Amino acid sequence: xxxxxxxxxxxxxxxGPAFMSWSRSYEASWENGGxxxxxxxxxxxxxxxxxxxQFALQKKIVTRQMELGxxxxxxxxxxxxxxxxxxxxxxxxITGLGTAGPAWLDGLDPLFTNISTxxxxxAIAAFGRTGFYEADGxxxxxxxxxxxxxxxxxxxDVAGAWHAAAPTGSACQ
Length: 173
What we know:
This protein is α/β, with parallel strands linked by helices. It has helices spanning about 5-10, 20-25, 50-65, 85-90, 110-125, 160; strands spanning about 75, 80, 100-105, 130-135, 170.
């Protein structure tokens, strides 16, 4: 992986197929021990064939939409990262203790811009320039974990981090 994580470490921040939409908002189908074994070790991984199939299907969908003149909205980086990233970037403002499972990278941390730009460049290389990009920094139960009550009323400019990779695209938040 580009950031130094193994495939197994990246897998710890994904949900199963029935819960993929939850993966985009930090919510996890495995919270409360759902896929951790009795020793607390993460014991779940999405099948590589499934992931490759989803990628191929999405490419077909986006290609066909573009052929029909329908704009497609690509996902952008919203800050959700595998918790183990904190081990590799201890100075970054990442929630959690660096253990398995999802964590959040502060949208104001410099690492956020680096990851966001890389993510967008790869999405554009894979799917083309669709012109629309979306990231949802939705948190169940309150504001982003790194925000205090005083700063939670302001918005982090997530779209600003996308501009380097997609200067002519439209951002949806």
